[in-house]
Amino acid sequence: MLWNGQRVPFTLLGGYLGAGKTTVINHVARHADGRRIVVLVNDVAAVNVDAALIADHDGTTLSLTNGCVCCAISDDFAQTLELIRAMPEPPDHVLMELSGVGEPARVAPWASTAGFRLDGIVTVADADQIVELATREYVGDTIGEQLRAADLVLLTKTDLAADRGAAARSLIGGHTSASIIEVRDGLVAIDFVLGIDRRDVALPSSSLELGGYDTTVVDVGSPTLAELEQLLVELPPDVIRAKGLVHCSDEEVPVEAHVVGGRRTVRRRPDLDMARTTSRLVIIRANP
Amino acid sequence: MSESGVIYRARSVVTLDHAVPTAEAVAVRGGTILGVGSVDDMRATWGPLPVDDTFADAVLLPGFVEAHSHSLEGAIWAWEYAGYFPRLGPDGRTRQGCQTFDETIDLLRRLDAELDDPTESLVVWGFDPIYFPGERLAARHLDLVSATRPICVIHASLHLITVNTALMEREGFADGTDVEGVPVGGDGRPIGELQEPPAMSLARREMLMLWGAMSDPASLRRFADMARLVGCTTVTELGAARLHGDDDLALWTQAAGEDGFPVRLVPLLNPSRGHHGTPDEIARHTVAIRQASTAKARFGLVKMVLDGSIQGFTARLNPPGYLPHPDGTDRANGIWLVEPEQFSAWFDAFHRAHVTVHTHVNGDQAVDLLLDTVEAVTASHSWLDHRHTAQHTQLTTAAQYRRMARLGMNANIFSNHIFYWGDQHRAITVGPDRAARMDACATADREGVRYSVHSDASVTPLGSLHTMWCAVNRVTASGNVLGPEERISVDRALRAVTVDAAHQLRMDHEIGTIEVGKLADFVALADHPYDVDPITLKDIEVLGTVVGGEITGP
Questions:
Q1: A174, B42, B142, B415: which sits with the fewest CB atoms below 10 Å from its CB?
Q2: Helices (DSSP H) in chain A: which residue ranges?
Q3: Long-range CB contacts (within 8 A, 24+) of B279-282
Q4: Same domain membership, residue B354 and residue B386
Q5: Domain A215-287 maps to which CATH number in 3.60.10.10, 1.20.120.450, 3.40.50.2000, 3.30.1220.10?
Q6: Angle (nearest 5°) at CA B264 between B259 and B265
Q7: Which domain holds residue B195?
Q8: What is the number of domains present in chain B?
Q9: B204 chain-A contacts, CB cut-off 8 A
């Protein structure tokens, strides 16, 4: 049986041309932190990482020294996914970039086929463009579908379009109740893009959409499991989401921590390796 | 055929050349047409050429040109046919079809007994559940054939397969899966039906075999044999194949280079099939690979796809869009396959490089985007003879055909749809009014657009006489006439599948009519298409073909 029945989390990254998908992908590829991520992209040439990070490049596949692989997608998903299934060891995650007119809900069934499970749908929206795009003649309804399917919306270029941010949020809110996270220069904590884990974590509701967000990465050291649980309970109320892997002093394997709204969960991850993960929490706080 | 030439005498030679519409015979030498006229006149001019009377009782016409087909038509015949209707195979043998479940099971048992390796999959195709309304084919039926050998029945739509329990056990989902499109029975276990490509991919080995067959030279040979049997002398692969590296090109040139290969192959390049680089780089590549063309493998045209299909509700429609769901709720519009900006950038680069672009546009909104794009590229670069072609054009309106005519474009109309899905279009997808003007050949004529008609094989079976029959009669599978005002004459339909098809492939100076100097590609028919009752057009027997002056076939 393929990979002994193990199913690799699979994230779909949607959004129109110029929304900032490639910037997000570049950021994820550079900051994989030991995770072996297969990134499926429309154009491998657009992936931009330090030369030192490139192990091999054959035109359609870019292998990185950090264990990540960027592959070009052909328009046949079935054949593209078979290339991943042919890997002797399953990767830790698959991140697939959709085309600018890709509708995530229609592609999503692929993310649950043999060897994979759908982790989440992330749609990237450009604050400067999204309102105009959503009314454009040919693609307006496609933009709406991309937002409607999202578990998480990354709003980019808010620095360029401060005054348009509110209009963009309002438009997005009209299509989806998914969380909206502002990102600058693609700098989104990758724990949020990868690991939405839609199986058991409901994302914050639309009531949290107003106002901006601050994302911080916190080094929590090596608490005991009990200390970690206490720490999560004591997080300030404006923390709307937190997630990370923590190396607890009394555990042999990494512990995954989740905070979603008022809900806190921790669970042991025996499938992950202490040596290949970093102990830290990523925290998103409302910043009205 | 001797180098000194030969005269083919026929009951009648129908040239489609207005200057010399009919003749007694045609003389060929070195693969091209030396003369058209009487045997005596041609001998007086060219000396005592031998007369070949193979087609003495036949009507000889220009070989049919299928301007929109796919080599999957040949790939799929790597496995046996299990459809409802009789169907001709590439070996020339007609399969009688399976009209009952028992016949389907009997066929599978026979094929099972022929396989030596007990782990080898048994694959058949063409099953159409629409003709078995009482019962749904399921694993429990296929398990009667074998409890150990994986069995996979590919449905006619290519969007559904039914597999047996042995296959589900091999892939580990016999007890269930969360993959979308896997219906379960009362016991909660999958019944064996896998709906749509994501679920179909659960039959991993069988789907890999199917894709593998696409790049197998034997598939191209079967495709060519199918073409020969239905009278086609030139067929296209409209962009499902990759034409990137030398190996991709060699697949076509080597297959077509075999002795006696019975057809000319025209594979089109699709830039979204693994062609990476700037639009200008891809356009230069398309021009460069023309140099690799041979007599029977021609490169250098482009195919792009804008939207999906009407029967799949994925074509892009203008308002009012699709009819509502049966429960009254609205249906969403279809999908785009490429961003308008990317499409425009590619189109512009091809146009400036003088590469003719064929674009899949089923829905009328997709046609609007194509017309806007062609208007923009032709305004920025003048190339009057571009022959950019709108493919399928199923819902194209008169106003759109007028724009198409002004922009110098061609159309290739999916006439076979009228027979195969016309009833469904009337009842389910767009309703009787729009269905009546679907695939509107007569409107294209009225508005001055040159067009071909096509099968989109293997979506519908390859066969130019059948496609002509659809355009001429517009009869649906249930026997109704859909949109009688859009019917065309036999002569118009014949030109559509010969010279006008050749025109949009930029080959009308070489093929499409029987004229001195052109390639000697002919089809021999048992009856004259102008003389038979048009409703029997599809039943005219194809007696043979000639390609490059040589009689094809075994």
A1: A174
A2: 21-30, 77-85, 104-107, 130-133, 140-148, 165-175, 190-193, 225-233
A3: B279/B345, B279/B346, B279/B348, B279/B349, B279/B350, B280/B349, B280/B353, B282/B346, B282/B349
A4: yes
A5: 3.30.1220.10
A6: 110
A7: 98-212
A8: 3
A9: 82, 85, 114
Q: Is residue B80 in a domain?
A: no
- Indicate if the alpha-carbon torsion angle B95, B100, B103, B108 is positive or negative: positive
Considering the domain boundaries, does residue B79 fall inside one? no
Alpha-carbon distances of A261 from A118, A258, B271, rounded to whole Å: 22, 10, 46
Cβ burial of B480 (10 Å; 0-12, 13-18, 19+) is: exposed
Per-residue pLDDT in tens (0 to 9) along chain B, 554 residues: 456 899 999 999 999 999 999 999 999 999 999 999 999 999 999 999 999 999 999 999 999 999 999 999 999 999 999 999 889 899 999 999 999 999 999 999 999 999 999 999 999 999 988 888 888 999 999 999 999 999 999 998 888 999 999 999 999 999 999 898 999 999 999 999 999 999 999 999 999 898 888 889 999 999 999 999 999 999 999 988 889 889 999 999 999 999 999 999 999 999 988 777 899 999 999 999 999 999 999 999 999 999 999 999 999 999 999 999 999 999 999 999 999 999 999 999 999 999 999 999 999 999 999 999 999 999 999 999 999 999 999 999 999 999 999 999 999 999 999 999 999 999 999 999 999 999 999 999 999 999 999 999 988 999 999 999 999 999 999 999 999 999 999 999 999 999 999 999 999 999 999 999 999 999 999 999 999 999 999 999 999 999 999 999 87
CATH match of A2-209 with 3.40.718.10: no
B463 in any annotated domain: yes
Give yes or no: residues B350 and B483 share one domain: yes
Interface of A with B (CB under 8 A): 1-2, 5, 16-17, 43-45, 59-60, 72, 74-79, 81-82, 85, 99-101, 103, 106, 108-110, 112-114, 117, 138-139, 141-142, 145
**Domain at B58, CATH number:** 2.30.40.10
Task: Tell me: do B136 and B238 sit in the same domain.
Answer: no
Same domain, B302 and B447: yes
**ipTM score of complex:** 0.90
CB contact under 8 A, A101 and B204: no
**Nearby residues of B28 by Cβ (< 8 Å), 6 or more positions away:** B1, B5, B6, B7, B8, B34, B520, B546, B549
Residues B306, B345, A171, CA angle at the centre, nearest 5°?
A: 70
Nearest by CB to residue A142, choosing from B171, B336, B368, is B336
CB-based burial of residue B494 (10 Å sphere; 0-12 exposed, 13-18 middle, 19+ buried)?
A: buried
Neighbouring CB atoms inside 10 A of A202's CB total 10
Structure token pair of residue B174: 């016999």
* Shortest Cα–Cα distance, B337 to chain A (Å): 7
**Residue A97 belongs to what H/E stretch?**
strand A93-97
* Pair (B175, B296) in one structural domain: no
Same domain assignment for residues B222 and B185: no
Whether residue B138 is found in the same domain as residue B276? no
Instruction: List where CATH 3.30.1220.10 sits in chain A.
Output: 215-287
User: Residue B228 maps to which CATH number?
Assistant: 3.20.20.140
Contacts of A142 in chain B (CB under 8 A): 335-336
SS (H, E, C) B334-377: CCECCCHHHHHHHHHHHHHCCCCEEEEECCHHHHHHHHHHHHHH
Residue A93 and residue A39 in contact, taking contact as beta carbons nearer than 8 Å: no
Domain with CATH 3.40.50.300 in chain A: 2-209
